[in-house]
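Sequence in, structure out.
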Amino acid sequence: MSDEPSHPDHPIDVRPATIAVTGGRPARQPDAPLNPPITMASTYVAAGDVEYGRYGNPTWSAFEEVLGALEGGRALAFASGMAAATTVLDLVGPGAGVVAPQHAYSGTIMALADLEARGRLHAHLVDIADTDAVIGAMKADEDCALLWIESPTNPALELADIETLARAAHELGVRVVVDNTFATPLLQQPLSLGADIVVHSATKYLAGHSDVQLGALVVSDEEVSGALKARRDLVGAVPGPFETWLALRGMRTLHLRLERAQANAIEIAGRLADHPGVVEVRYPGFGAIVALVLADGFSADLVARSTRLWVHATSLGGVESTLERRRRWKAEASTIPEGLLRLSVGIEDVEDLWTDLERALAPLVP
């Protein structure tokens, strides 16, 4: 029996939740395992399709099959979200321009700054929610090659008009990349809106249990997919089989986790809006990330350290609720308020989450 995952055509048009559960399974044969095995191999017998562990792995293939089906394209797994992101940036030619959000994952901003400092490219950071400004920045740079979009942005939670921006970018010959980590393919499918490449930090919602570092890219064009895979093979930005298997197992429950976390986030955001110690609540209307801004003079760090259920941590997207003052990181944009706390709402009981958060916010009440 082959260790390769099956790629069956579903007899009916199934929905994303069903794809997440049924995709990437081995062929249905007597005594076959229900789940794909973890293939721990660096070396393969010659004359096949893989040849060497840096070029492929059946466990990767199973993960890529499911994510590709959810996003509507061809997926590639990477060692981390940053490995995936920097592989995309490697496709930008010397001296070309990149338009990106002024508020975005700090790792992305740092990667752009590093490449700019070394003369590899020049970056234009814009308000991604201002569609006219984004299009204007692309038009102003005759060497613009890439538009990088986050929607919602991290941590400001701004939304981009992906479809309009993708259309305008393509008219200018600019490739479009969308980081879909916050939304996940269950809430947003950028390829269907015109994006060329989708980026995921699979460490977050896809894996969902704060025990994996993994990244992924999804594309609709076979030639672009081949170029990205060639780059992955060359630099060795490949994931471990065990991490990929864990991420695949995590995706089986993505729809359930996201449904619960989103319901909790909606409730938490609504209650925070009425709290006297909070001057602003940012929530895009979907997903499980909420940002709040405290009134001047109140310590966001103190609030983050005062919770008992909410964990003070920098990552997000796990089953547990986490929170963090983003400006504690030097790379965070200066336009992010000092008093902004980013909340990653988990799947705990919402009343327990609110009681804990309300207790930590209590010193802010006059």
